[in-house]
From TrEMBL, chain A:
Name by which UniProt lists this protein: LSM complex subunit LSm2
Cross-referenced InterPro entries: LSM_dom_sf, Sm, Sm_dom_euk/arc, U6_snRNA_Lsm2
Keywords associated with the record: mRNA processing, mRNA splicing, Nucleus, Ribonucleoprotein, RNA-binding, Spliceosome
Gene Ontology molecular function: poly(U) RNA binding; U2 snRNA binding
UniProt superkingdom: Eukaryota
Family membership: Belongs to the snRNP Sm proteins family.
Species annotation: Suhomyces tanzawaensis NRRL Y-17324
Limits of the Sm domain: 2-76
Tagged with keyword Cell inner membrane: no
PROSITE patterns tied to this protein: SM
Function: Component of LSm protein complexes, which are involved in RNA processing and may function in a chaperone-like manner.
From TrEMBL, chain B:
CDD domains membership: LSm1 (cd01728)
Main location: cytoplasm
Xref: InterPro entries: Lsm1, LSM_dom_sf, PTHR15588, Sm, Sm_dom_euk/arc
Primary gene name: LSM1
Listed GO biological process terms: deadenylation-dependent decapping of nuclear-transcribed mRNA; mRNA processing
Any GO molecular function: chromatin binding
Keyword check for Glycosyltransferase: no
Chain intervals with Low complexity compositional bias: 1-15
Annotated spans, Disordered: 1-25
Highest taxon above the source species: Eukaryota
SUPFAM superfamilies xref list: Sm-like ribonucleoproteins
Protein name, UniProt field: U6 snRNA-associated Sm-like protein LSm1
Protein family per UniProt: Belongs to the snRNP Sm proteins family.
Automatic annotation (TrEMBL), chain C:
Top-level taxonomic group: Eukaryota
Cited Gene3D superfamilies: 2.30.30.100
GO cellular component: chromosome, telomeric repeat region; U5 snRNP
Organism: Suhomyces tanzawaensis NRRL Y-17324
Classification via Pfam families: LSM (PF01423)
Listed GO MF terms: chromatin binding; poly(U) RNA binding; telomerase RNA binding; U2 snRNA binding
Entry protein name: LSM-domain-containing protein
Lineage of source species: Eukaryota, Fungi, Dikarya, Ascomycota, Saccharomycotina
């Protein structure tokens, strides 16, 4: 559950999601669930011309299993908290508390 | 029905210890907070809206989302399947498309790559620059493209493996 | 019956415990899709999901060309792409 909690702390921040098929989508993270499915608002496709049908898509629900990377601003991450949570996480199954 | 309280409660509760510590248990708050971060909550806003769904086999479905569940199983009404085809230069976007009416369309959640609400004022804008061809022709051409992709990727996997690298390709994933 | 064999610090170790010592250190992560990522390990879980900072991604090609390098200041990597994690120098 650590990264579920982690993504909850990123809600309302801008992130770039890279899928396993190489599409990169930039948007504001609006929601996340236990499977790390992501919901983005105000999306724009980094390779706009290649996927023209995404131009009229307002928000996007992305299935977690198709995600390769999520890039984010370093300012939105509390590294100390994340490291501590990872150290503890292996034992008590609890992550960062929101 | 899909967003009924019982279903939402089946989801493991989100870690909401924050509110537990400070305010003491307020059942309603706990319920609302744990519901916010569920699959259901992410999709519920798109119900009865025109929605775009990309499936793992590469299909693009456009239709009105009528219902769903916590696995992102979906039911679309008046669904249209649209095939986009690239031109000579495969690094560029599509140049033509074909579409077919699919009516009521149910999708099993595991096959969804992504889905999004469409802006109905702009959803057809991008089609202006594309040439429409009969769906059957598009389907035939797509089949060729897919079998070529599978062949290419298999060869690529082999070459990469000889360099100690592992490709990420399964032939059921053509999105 | 209740003899204590081990000290609390010497609990049985599992593979991921070794990764714990790499927190805040540079690691090299080998990934599916002919990729590698080098970066400072900021977090991980039992699925090998992880967050790296100051990361460099290397995308290898089939030929002899040099890998394409992409930089990212902070990146989450989904665990199902991960093949191995190894300590590395910067």
């Amino acid at each position: 559950m650590l990264f579920f909690s982690f993504f909850k702390t990123l809600v309302d921040q801008e992130v770039t999601v890279e899928l396993k098929n190489d599409i990169e989508i930039k948007g504001v993270l609006k929601s996340v669930d236990q499977y790390l499915n992501l919901k983005l608002d105000n999306i724009s496709c980094v390779n706009e011309g290649k996927y023209p049908h995404l131009q009229s898509v307002k928000n996007l629900f992305i299935r977690g299993s198709t995600v390769r990377y999520v890039h984010m601003s370093p300012n939105s991450v509390d590294c100390t908290l994340l490291q501590d949570a990872s150290r503890r996480g292996m034992y008590d199954g609890e992550g960062i508390k929101r | 029905m899909s967003n009924s309280p019982t279903q939402a409660q089946q989801q493991p509760a989100a870690p909401n210890s924050g509110s537990l510590d400070s305010n003491g248990p307020n059942v309603e708050d706990l319920y609302l907070e744990s519901y916010t971060f569920t699959t259901a909550a992410a999709i519920v806003g798109s119900v009865d809206r025109k929605t775009f769904v990309l499936l793992r086999d590469g299909r693009n479905i456009f239709g009105i989302l009528r219902t769903f569940d916590q696995f992102a199983n979906l039911v679309l009404q008046d669904a249209i399947e649209r095939i986009y085809l690239k031109g000579e230069d495969a690094s560029q976007g599509p140049v033509k498309f074909g579409e077919a009416y699919r009516g009521v369309f149910m999708v099993r959640g595991e096959n969804v790559v992504m889905m999004g609400e469409l802006d109905i004022d702009r959803e057809d804008d991008h089609l202006d620059q594309l040439e429409q061809i009969p769906f059957d022709d598009a389907e035939r051409e797509l089949k060729l493209v897919h079998s070529q992709t599978i062949q290419d990727e298999k060869a690529r996997s082999k070459r990469l493996l000889s360099k100690g690298l592992i490709n990420d390709f399964t032939k059921s994933d053509l999105y | 019956m209740s003899t204590v064999h081990t000290e609390p610090q010497q609990q049985q170790q599992e593979p991921l415990d070794l990764i714990r010592y790499q927190l805040d250190e540079f690691v090299l992560v080998k990934l599916r899709g002919a990729r590698e990522m080098k970066g400072k390990l900021q977090g991980y879980d039992s699925h090998c999901n992880m967050v790296l900072s100051d990361a460099q991604e290397f995308i290898f090609s089939e030929g002899e060309e040099q890998p394409v390098v992409k930089k990212s200041e902070m990146v989450f990597i989904r665990g199902d792409s991960v093949i191995l994690i190894s300590p590395t120098s910067e």
